[in-house]
Inverse folding.
């Protein structure tokens, strides 16, 4: 069966520090991968998606970047965090091939910026 | 671009009652998919139900069913015989057909099932 792992679960970082959140998927090949952010009391906002190694599409201009160095690995990064980067970050995957496939989410990372 | 609107920030019902959560969307796409996700206090996102826009038949998954009105761009979720474990945030989501560019979510409805 397929599983998705996302870490760390909780992170507290000072303003201006770098960020690296990692997400890996097991049990499938060539998945579509996604990063979402959920601000307090709000829905999820798509940040990045990837349909293959090295292929990253950005939905929202921001202080963040994403990379996909391996087929089942998706990394969210920042060089200098802002207070507005606080939130709950969710990684998701779906079967390669289109939007009719449901997305499966990781457990999320709660990021607090001080 | 598409938008998803959930007009009920919070709802509360008694256990065993039936509850309907509303969702409307706006899109110029003809091929798309709609989803309901549940986010319990653990914050894990769980797929509840999925509807293909080209299908007229409403999707059903056990106690969960949808009322899909394509012309009205409405996609409501009905939960029958509600249970305490149904307490969660519920998000309606839209996916454009033929692409892999992610989901557009509504802001969610917080559903509380009272004992």
């Amino acid at each position: 069966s397929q599983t998705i792992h996302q870490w760390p679960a909780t992170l507290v970082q000072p303003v201006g520090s770098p960020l690296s959140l990692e997400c890996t998927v097991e049990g499938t090949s060539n998945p579509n991968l996604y990063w979402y952010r959920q601000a307090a009391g709000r829905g999820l906002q798509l940040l990045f998606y990837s349909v293959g190694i090295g292929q990253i599409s950005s939905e929202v201009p921001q202080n963040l970047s994403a990379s996909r160095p391996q087929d089942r690995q998706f990394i969210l990064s920042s060089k200098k965090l802002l207070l507005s980067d606080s939130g709950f970050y969710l990684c998701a995957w779906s079967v390669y091939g289109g939007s009719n496939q449901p997305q499966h989410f990781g457990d999320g990372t709660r990021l607090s910026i001080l | 671009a598409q938008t998803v609107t959930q007009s009920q920030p919070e709802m509360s019902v008694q256990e065993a009652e039936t509850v309907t959560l509303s969702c409307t969307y706006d899109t110029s796409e003809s091929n798309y998919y709609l989803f309901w996700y549940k986010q319990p206090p653990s914050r894990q996102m769980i797929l509840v139900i999925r509807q293909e826009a080209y299908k007229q038949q409403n999707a059903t998954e056990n106690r969960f069913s949808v009322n899909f009105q394509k012309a009205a761009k409405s996609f409501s979720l009905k939960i029958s015989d509600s249970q305490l474990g149904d307490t969660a945030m519920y998000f309606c989501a839209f996916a454009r057909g033929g692409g892999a560019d992610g989901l557009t979510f509504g802001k969610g409805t917080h559903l509380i099932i009272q004992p």
User: Anything to note?
Assistant: The CA atoms of residues 54 and 73 of chain A lie 11 Å apart. Chain A has a mean pLDDT of 92.
